[in-house]
Each structure stands twice: as structure tokens, then as C-alpha cells.
Amino acid sequence: MNAVITEGHPVGESILQGEGAGPGPTSSALMSDLLSILRGNIKYPFGIPDFKRKKVKPYNIKNYLNSLYLRFEVNDKPGILSQITQQLAKRKISVERLIQIPDHKRKTASIVIITHKANELNVQKCIKSIRSNKNILKNPILIRLL
Fold first, then answer.
1. DSSP assignment, residue 55?
2. Among residues 65, 61, 69, 72, which one has the least CA distance to residue 144?
3. pTM for the complete prediction?
């Protein structure tokens, strides 16, 4: 469903709601627009000439700091949490919050960690080293937080 909300004085807020175009028509229109841009049929696809747009800097992994949401699925054994936090400390990644949720039937646990801001390069190295631990059952989930 799509909705448009308008507000005016003295009418107040009005909401118009209706069914959207759906995935087929939407993806078709998107592809049509992209192909028109690539063919050069649209002179200013972003509303302004290219030379007036800001240049994008290349992504440099060394320059970014992010807080992180990390989730690990592990064997529920003594010392696993310690191994993870040691790897984080080794890479200067500080834990802000941590919760461990055991699954007694499967003898596994989910470990969720929220970190303070950390260097992206250190994070990538840390995740790589943690992945090699045989007690980590799945690839860790990493979500960057602002």
C-alpha cells in the first residue's frame, strides 16, 4: 500500500491511501529509467549537470569509526565468551553492552555485543580471527550503528 499525507490550513491532515504498483511494474519502471540514463537520453539525470555535483571520495576503510551490533552463535562452553572479548580487546574494540542467551537443549548460545565506536579496519581483522574459532557455529552478524 502507498500513502500520501497532506496538511493544510484550515483543513488539517488528509491521508490518501491506495494499492501500489507492485514489484513487476515498479522494477520495470526502474530498469527503464536506468537504461535511459545509460543511453544518454536524459541530459541531467540528477537534476544538475555533472560538473556541479560534489565528487565522491573513495571509501577508505582506515578512516571510518562505527559502533557495532555483533551477534555470535556459539557452543555453550566455558571460555568462549572470554575468547571473543579477548579478540575484541586485542583490536581495541570496547564493549558497551553484552547479553548472552543460552539454548540449553542444543547446548548453544547467542552472544549479542554492542560496541563503542571502533576503527573499521580493526573490526574486519577481529571478525576474521573470530570466524576461525571452531566454537563459532555461524558467520557472525555485524551491523554498523551510527
1. P
2. 69
3. 0.62
The mean per-residue pLDDT over the stretch 43-69 comes to 83
Type of residue at 76: D
Measured at the alpha carbon of residue 108, what is the angle toward residues 102 and 111, in degrees to the nearest 5? 60
Q: What is the model's pLDDT at position 98?
A: 97
Domain count along the chain: 2
Q: Are 36 and 42 in contact (CB under 8 A)?
A: yes
Residues 59-74 pLDDT 10s: 787 888 999 999 999 9
In a domain, 140, yes or no: yes
Supply angle C-alpha 29, 33, 42, rounded to 5: 150
Nearest 10 degrees: Cα torsion 16, 19, 25, 29: 10
Residues 90 and 140 in one domain: yes
Cβ-proximal residues to 136 (8 Å cutoff; 6+ apart), any chain:
72, 73, 74, 130
State the residue range of the domain holding 84: 64-145
As given in the structure block, the three cell numbers for residue 108 are 548453544
